[in-house]
Each structure stands twice: as structure tokens, then as C-alpha cells.
Specification:
By secondary structure, this protein is mainly alpha-helical. The chain has 14 helices and two strands. Strands 1-2 form a two-stranded antiparallel sheet. β1 and β2 form a beta hairpin. α2 packs antiparallel against α3, α3 packs antiparallel against α6 and α9 crosses α10. The chain is globular.
Length: 396
């Protein structure tokens, strides 16, 4: 009996093997490198955000410090809560996952440090290494089992990255860009570094999640690298346009922007609770409302469907609404920008970035679904998977 299978049976563990794993499950050095990059990238992004917050504090700009710190801690708290819920489900399902976090004290310590995605990426990396070692030992059963566990951790990590990107990275970009426009010369380098670190992972997080969960979905073909690249461009450009538009309005009308975002989040949370309630955290009413609240905040920048259903008209409505909002932001920027900003090097680039990347992103989306979508159908298909205690709710 293979060593890994014997260990699983002796420990009374079980696991669900993804239904559409590729026939060739060889793990390359590049795969391992990507996991290392994901871990290091998260740490660098977090470090640069903390750095700019410290700089505001040293400059006695306490309001800027408070907002920057809030956009670090609140998203991290959401990710930690979601990750803890995932671990609880794994325990209820007697999962053999969480290799790195079997030491309970270590898991708690890292979660308290608000670094939930790193746990998942580290587990995925460990399983990838074990699968590779099993392949070298010609232990096909262990190789396949560890590969399946790697995919499971990878998909969980990718979901956490979605929340991190659109609850922390994107809002942080809006904040730091609007503050950069106010010409804090002594802090400009630190602001630009924070913005750049957030930009790098924006588009990739959704594309990586889409690619990861397709390996575990029974009726989906795996995505090609060209398809993944095009999805990355699509999501990156659309989100870049949304961030630029919101940054322009935040510079002109900061308090009205906060109010508008709060109203948007509350409206979307109410909509989700009434019509699109996610099965995730369905065991707890407060947890379910909190999860809907987090999704409502994500909808400021992008749209993901929390329950299974047709998405064509919802995507059409969402992208149309966002396009109108971006055009409105561009017009307000052109009309209400003061003389100081009109003479700034940022004035015309902001006008262009409010709309042009958005249009290009939609063009890439159309090209992707026309030529590179793994399973073309009448249903617009960006998948998000929310686990419950009894089943997995697959979203198409």
C-alpha cells in the first residue's frame, strides 16, 4: 500500500479528489516558484502598506494614518474569519489538509498576525513538494493524492486572495492615489511603492482563482495559459479603471465618496441577503450577513456571483452601470478639478485611465469568451466556489 494512502487510512482521514485533474500531473520548478512568489509577494505588499502607514504617523498626518491602517486591518480580519471558517469545515469533514498548520499554536499565531493566505499557499507548496517526491519514488497513488490536496489548498488560497485584492489592495490604491494627488512630496515615493505593490496582483487574483477551481470542477475543462493571461488583462484593466475613477472622485469629494461607497455596500448586502444569499456560513445568521457585507464591498470593484445561476444579464447590468459611473467620474474630474490639479501632470492621465482601460478590458473579455473559453456556452462563466458543511456550491 502506498505510504500516503496508508497514512490517510490509519489516521481516519479522507479527502475528495478533484474530478478533472489533468492526466499529466507533473509539478515543475516553475509551479513551485509561483507559490514562493505568492508568499513573498503577500509579505512585500503588506510590508509596503505598513511602511506608508508608519510614514503618515511620523509626519503627524493622523487621518491618513488611520485610513491606511483601517484598510490593512479590516480586510485582514475578513480573510482571517473566512480562513477560520474553512478550517472548521475541513475539521468537520475529517480533511487530511492543513499540513503546515497541524500545530495548532502555529496556526493561531499566524492567523493573529493577519496572514491567512500565507497559510494556504504554504500548505499548497508543501503538498506540491510531496507530490513531486512521490513521483520520483514511482508512488503514483501518493503522487495523485498530494496533487489533489495541493489543488484544494490552491483554490482556497485563491479565494482568500480575491478578498484580499478587492478589500485591501484596491481600496488601498484608491486611498493612496487620492492622497498622492494632493502632492505629499516627502511621502510620494512611499505612496507609489504601496500603489505599485497593490497593482501587481489585482488582475491575477481572479484569473488564478478561475484556473485553480477549474481543476476541481467536474463539468469544466481546464483553462489554458493564454486564456489565463487574457483573463488577467481583462480583470486588471477593468479594476484599474474603477480604481482611477474612484480615486478622482475621492480627491474632489472625499466625504461624499465615503458616503456613496457605504450606501453601495449596504444596498448590495441587502440584495445578496434577499436574492443571492450564499451558502457559505449558512449555519450562522450573523456570519452570513457578514459574508454578504464583505461581498458587497468587493462589488465596488468587480462582480462575482455567490450562488449558482445564469450570469449573462447580471454581468451586462453590472458592467453597464460601472461604465456609466466611470464616465460620470471622468466628467466630474474635468469640470471640478481645481487650477492646481489642471496644471498637474496627473490631470490628463486620470481622464484617460477613467475610461480607456475599462473599454479595453471589455474587449479582452469578449475575445476570451469568443476564442479561449474552455467550455463555450450561452452562460457567461466566471466561477466562484463557496463551501458549506454538506456540499460545494459551484457558481457559473
Amino acid at each position: 500500500m502506498p505510504k500516503a494512502a496508508r497514512k490517510m487510512l490509519q489516521s481516519a482521514y479522507s479527502y475528495d479528489e478533484p474530478d478533472r485533474m489533468p492526466s499529466n500531473i507533473t509539478i515543475t520548478n516553475f509551479d513551485l516558484f509561483l507559490y514562493v512568489v505568492a508568499i513573498v509577494g503577500h509579505l512585500v505588499d503588506l510590508g509596503l502598506d505598513i511602511n506608508v502607514a508608519v510614514r503618515y504617523s511620523l509626519e503627524r498626518k493622523m487621518m491618513e494614518f488611520g485610513w491606511t491602517l483601517a484598510f490593512i486591518l479590516l480586510p485582514a480580519f475578513v480573510n482571517t474569519a473566512v480562513s477560520i471558517r474553512m478550517y472548521a469545515q475541513d475539521k468537520q469533514q475529517d480533511s487530511v489538509t492543513n499540513e503546515f498548520t497541524k500545530r495548532k499554536w502555529l496556526r493561531i499565531f499566524i492567523l493573529v498576525l493577519q496572514m491567512a493566505p500565507i497559510l494556504r499557499f504554504t500548505d499548497a507548496l508543501i503538498y506540491a513538494v510531496k507530490s513531486r517526491r512521490a513521483a520520483r519514488a514511482h508512488d503514483a497513488a501518493s503522487q495523485r493524492m498530494y496533487y489533489a490536496l495541493m489543488l484544494k489548498e490552491d483554490s482556497d488560497a485563491a479565494l482568500l486572495r480575491v478578498f484580499e485584492c478587492f478589500l485591501e489592495a484596491a481600496p488601498q490604491q484608491v486611498l493612496q492615489t487620492s492622497l498622492l494627488l494632493r502632492q505629499y512630496d516627502r511621502l510620494a515615493v512611499h505612496q507609489i511603492l504601496s500603489i505599485s505593490s497593490s497593482v501587481v496582483g489585482m488582475g491575477w487574483c481572479l484569473a488564478a482563482y478561475q484556473r485553480a477551481v477549474r481543476f476541481a470542477q467536474q463539468d469544466k475543462l481546464n483553462m489554458s495559459w493564454p486564456g489565463t493571461a487574457l483573463q488577467t488583462l481583462w480583470h486588471f484593466l477593468v479594476t484599474l479603471s474603477r480604481v482611477t475613477s474612484m480615486s478622482a472622485i475621492a480627491y474632489l469629494f472625499p466625504y461624499w465618496t465615503v458616503l456613496a461607497c457605504a450606501i453601495h455596500i449596504l444596498v448590495m448586502t441587502t440584495w445578496l441577503q434577499l436574492f443571492d444569499r450564499s451558502p457559505f456560513c449558512s449555519h450562522n445568521q450573523l456570519g452570513q450577513i457578514s459574508f454578504s457585507l464583505a461581498l458587497g464591498a468587493v462589488y465596488l470593484f468587480t462582480y462575482i456571483l455567490p450562488v449558482e445561476g445564469r450570469t449573462r444579464y447580471r454581468y451586462a447590468a453590472y458592467y453597464s452601470t460601472c461604465f456609466i459611473q466611470n464616465i460620470t467620474c471622468m466628467a466630474l474630474w474635468y469640470v471640478y478639478a481645481d487650477n492646481f490639479m489642471r496644471s498637474s501632470i496627473y490631470f490628463y492621465p486620470m481622464l484617460v485611465l477613467c475610461v480607456v482601460p475599462y473599454v479595453l478590458g471589455l474587449v479582452f473579455m469578449v475575445v476570451y469568451y469568443a476564442f479561449l473559453h474552455p467550455k463555450p456556452s450561452k452562460v457567461c462563466d466566471v466561477s466562484v466556489e463557496f463551501k458549506t458543511d454538506e456540499h460545494v456550491a459551484q457558481v457559473s
